[in-house]
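User: I'm putting together a teaching handout on how sequence relates to shape, and I'd like one worked example. Could you take Alpha-N-acetylglucosaminidase from Arcicella gelida, show the sequence you're using, and then write out its predicted structure as tokens right after it?

Assistant: Happy to. First the sequence, then the structure tokens directly below it.
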Amino acid sequence: MSKLFNQSIVLLLLAVNFAYSQADLAASKALIKRIIPQKAQYFEVANIPQENGKDVFEIESKSGKIILKGSSGVSIASALNHYLNEYCHCQITWNGTNLQLPKTLPVLKTKVHKNTSFEYRYYLNYCTFNYSMSWWDWKRWEKEIDWMALHGINMPLAITGEEYTWYEVYKEMGFSDNDLASFFSGPAYFSWFWMGNLDGWGGPLPLSWMKNHKNLQTKILARQRSLGMTPVLPAFTGHVPSAFKEHFPKAKLKATNWTNGFADTYILDSEDPLFAEIGKKFLQKQTQLFGTNHFYSADTFNENEPPTDDPAFLSKLSTRVYEGMKQADPKAVWVMQGWLFYSDRKFWKEPQIKALLDAVPNDKMLLLDLATEIEPVWKRTQAYYGKPWIWNMLHNFGGNVNLFGRIEGVANGPIQALNSPNKGDLKGIGLTMEAIEQNPVLYELTMRHVWENTPLDLDKWLDTYILNRYGKLTPKTQEVWQILKKTAYNGKDIRDGAESIITGRPTFDSTTIWTRTRLNYLPKDLLPAWKLMVESIEDCGKNDGFQYDLIDISRQVLANYALPLQKKWVTAYRQKDLANFKKYSQEYIELIEDLDQLLATRKDFMLGPWIASARDQGTNPAEKALYEQNARDLITLWGDANSPLHEYANRQWSGLLNDFYKPRWQQFFNKVTLALEKGEKMDTEAFEKEIRQWEWKWVTSQKNFPTQSINQVNAVAQSLYKKYYTKVYSVYE
């Protein structure tokens, strides 16, 4: 009887594994059909076991087919990407794709075998869900999940639809829709609402949004899991509605403020018995709606300091947060962003960090070193005091448009950490940018480490990157990337990429609080790259990736040129030279117009798709108007007319340049001209008060912008090169 029972168990386990295997393979085949439908029939897929608990893939040619084997759907997708990159010289990025496959697929002479040293390959930052993903539909999400799989990502943050879970929890607790109207933010502000930084801004949130995004999250998770990914879902950290005090007058609440122009939010003290009860309710409801993979994201103090730095207090708080997860899911693992240890290092010293982390068992917590390429916090925390942790590149803040990155650090950092005797329990590698769809080279480079365990030869890797991206490798394009490596991507001096003074609120200064213009290179040193790109149009100009880079480099040169041009009209103003002020201010306006025309050649750099996709989410005119206002506000004021965060998420986008930045500068120049004509000093304070109201009017207005590019990339780039190269060159001499 016992033997028969054991055999039944074995057969059952085999059946379960077989079923999972089949589902995995079906998802992998479907991915291949989406990526390369014209050649999908030449690929076969198969499963192989992990090695030492980590993923592996193999590629071989057999009987006229390319056989992709992997330990998960992600591994199989990574095998496909490796084959496309290394043998077909193709490339898939957000900003330019080359899938010009050879008529006959290359045959592998020997089997390729790749394993990874990184158990977890993490993806996304709370902020990414708004700075880039606010208006995504299933079609766009499907494309991104494919991109994740191709690049080896197996642990994505998955917080779409979180608001619906909370809606259900609070409704069951007796809260009315009116109670919650001032709680849920508008769709462009969820990231900061989820992190407890703000309530209600950009709302009230329609119930239709919540229901639609509950359904969207169901699709997202099903696809991610079918490919073998482990989604990280949210958990409760104490943020509750302001109406909570009416429903539970004895609850222990603390008002806190993000200090960025928003009203107080309320945090339920973890000592209050309701804390564990609500945390349990939330995870149970979330599991009921979406299932679970037992990993939960929770950040207790995102840019909000705790009330005390007493280690005992922090230890007890951490214990209670984890226990709240454990009550609902005994297998719960707490995934924590390490951003607070970087952003508020004055508070988070060794005793405080250690107390917060030591309170949770090592195998029940996973730390994200959120900006390792900027500052490796693991090095000053004894690798997070024994906790498993992940090396991440943050790179982009606010979705700002600039050529920037620490390419040498990204090429060397992950493998150096992996080989360090002090690395502790390094478990993974990841991408935690605030926004995507920019600087694709940095993201391709970071994820190349997934399947490598030795240092990369950066120059050799760049040659392959160019070949895959442009369809050919030429001496000129090689030189372009050597220049970029030494200038825009050198990673020195500044934390994140510089913006153009054009995107700042009009000023006589050379910078503003959120429009930082300091470069990590001499702007004249970028000019040869521009020249070489224009000269390479004949060889590479039909390739999508080349066209994106041509526009991006041209944009960066002209965006940099705005600063010396600004200095000319500032000097004219100070010298009370009206004629030269008019001349140079008009050239400045013309530069904005030319930049707008340049960026109109690529959808990557256009306002129209952002606005249109926001409006498309609405089910009626009122919702469409609300979502458009959210979309306009996030990338300009960020809050109300007096927001201290204005321009934090500025974008160099066609449509935004001509419709927002240009008229704002024109109003400024008109005021300066009037002051010069009267022999008076420009009243900058009065202008700022006035322009804030104009900006808010723009945010709350509605207008359609082009959603299709003018599709004249090479011609426009050549035209602007002829117009500006000599001017720009001379100003730096």
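A couple of points you could highlight for students: The chain has 27 helices and 17 strands. Confidence is low (pLDDT under 50) at residues 1-23.
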